[in-house]
Structure formats: C-alpha cells, structure tokens
Amino acid sequence: MRIVIIGAGFAGMYAALSAARLRDIQGASPDKLEIALVAPEPTLVVRPRLYEPKPETLTAPLQDVLKAIDVIYVRGHAEAIDTRSKVVEIAAAQGARKKLPYDRLVVATGSRLFRPNVPGLAEHGFSVDQLDDAVALDRHLHGLSSRPASKARNSVVVAGGGFTGIEAATEVPSRLRKILGKDAQLRVVIVDRNEAIAPDMGAGPRPVIEDALRKLGIETRLGVGVASLDKSGVTLSDGERIECQTVIWAAGMRAAPLTAQIPAERDQFGRLLVDRELRVPSVSGVFATGDAARAACDDVGNYALMSCQHATRMGAFAGNNAAAELLGVPTRPYHQKAYVTCLDLGEAGALFTRGWERTVEMVGDVAKKTKQEINTVWIYPPKAERAAALASADPERVTAL
Length: 401
Known about the structure:
401 residues, 25 strands, alpha/beta, globular, five-stranded parallel β-sheet, 9 helices
C-alpha cells in the first residue's frame, strides 16, 4: 500500500509526519505502508517570512527528517493526476518522467499569488509569494542604491492591504534605510480596493494597524486599485499617478493549478471542497489539505484560511486519515477551533489577536517577541530524531494554541 503526498510545504510536511506517526503506532512496517512525498526539492520554504530581508536563508531542509521517519522523498514536479487509475505523473530531472501509483493521495500543493491581467504587472511587479519572487525583490531593492537618487527611486507601492501587504509594507522602511542610508527620504503607499485597511482583520485590531502605519509614515489609498504599471510608476483606478520604481503585488491568493486536475467541486479560490476528514468526497482515495482545501474548522461556520497555522494542522489530519483508511483504523474529523493572528508591523512592533473575532491581546514590542518566536521556532520542522518528529505530528496537538 502507498500514500503519495504532493507538496513539501507546511501541509505536506505534516501530512508525511502524521501518516508515519500512525503507521508507527499501529506497528505497520514501511514495506507494508509506503509513504512517498513528491516535491521539486526536499526543502520547506518558510513562506510566512518571505517579506523579510535575505529570503534565500528562509528555508529548512527536510531530507533528514523524512529519512528519520521512513518517508520516501521523490524529486520532481507532479504534473498530472489520473484519479481513475490512481497514478501521479512526475516530471523528474533532465526531462525524465515517471508514474507513481497510489492507494491514497494527499494533495498539499499550496497556493499561488493571484496575478490579474493588469497592464505592466508581469513586467514591472514584484512579490513576496514564492522564494524566487522574494529573492528577486531583495536583489531589486539592493540594486536601487546604484540608481540616481530621486523620489521615484525612494518610493514603493504595495498593492494589497491585507495581511501580506501590511507585513511587506511595514518592513520596507527599515530594509530601504539599510540600503539607501538612514537619512533617505522614503515613501511607501499601500493601495487597496476595500474602503478600510486590513479588511479581514475586522474593526477591533484596525486602530492598532492604522497607528503603526502613521508611525512609519506609510500612506494608504483605499477604495481604489492599480490600473496599470510601467517602469516609472503606477496609475490608480481613479487616475492618480504615483511615481515609483518598486511595486509589490500582494492582492489575493489562489490554490495551485494542479488542484484543477481533480474532478471535484472547488470554491472561488480554486480550493477543493472536502469533508470533515479532509477527503474529496466525489473522488475515491483523494484527500486535500492546506491551501488546496476548503475545510470547515468547526460547526459554527468558520473555514480554514490560507495560512501556515491552518495548513500544519490540516496536514496532520489529512496524513493521519489517509493512513487510517489503509490500516483499517478510525479516521479523525479535522477541527481547529483555536485561531490566532500575529501581524508583523515592522519597526512599529506587532499585533497579536485571538479568536475569529480577533480580540487584541498583545501589541508593540511584546507582540513582536511572540512574532519572532513564531517565525524562528514554531513554524520550523521538528528535529530529525524519529521519536520527537513523530510525536510532533499528533493531529490533536498541532497548532493547538
């Protein structure tokens, strides 16, 4: 029997850990139940940190962890899924292709930044979505020091006033001062089509965010969007022109395209609709998890967000349940009633909230310490020691805040 997990992000990593954990508990050998993880590299990209400088350092190796728990790593891109034959087709190195049969499939392919057909976006926009994107932005920012000083050189527009956009924008002033000098006259503008900043955060935390933006001198343009980009700036939908040489796009996410190959219902973000055990109900043997799945967190109407906090726990339940079905033991319904947010606000500190109503618990330097602990400890893989790694993946305990 074989479980195939596609993706080495937070959901894929925890699916592998949790499936191996249940296999170990049930006394099944790796020969009886093979667990294979497919990804281009055996590496976790610490995606929540890609707004930070030196993004090339924001990865964590997985090979030793996978070896410690007897999970097979398969290098390559999963390019096709045949759910009738239960086979994944993989593009490996140097053009080679291979087919990997499965008994249970866990789709943990993550999400991608939504890039609409805005004129000039593909040519002139940057992002902090994937590792390569963040590295390209970092190189661009460092390259600004070799350009003639001007208002446009020192100006940054961030398209998107949600979580990612705010973290990217509030980090920019300190990043640019280190590059252009502490006395550089900087301008950072957040543009968002909503009438309020951080629309998903709600009214409670918003004054804290607005105060942080004021402290950092960050402007906002709300109720408008970016109509076009060119090499010297952006034009907004109301006709305003902002001269700048850096535009960071942070306006929305979509599930990775591979989910479209599963013949099942999806939501407006391309996520597969799953049941409480994270199965794709209409397709035999397929589970979806993390940003690839629309899953209910509780019985009162809250659904998992595209975040590593939800992806890690969802991954643990999906891996456990895929293994449970093959080992003939009960599955566990996914639930994640506890929910917190910790929003980095650059040199203005951070904001920590608890619950779906986002009650503010910590702000400023105190919240910043928690954010740093989350970013440098909590979200990293467990040590490559078998017992500890398996113990970390108990679905009931993962991200139980």
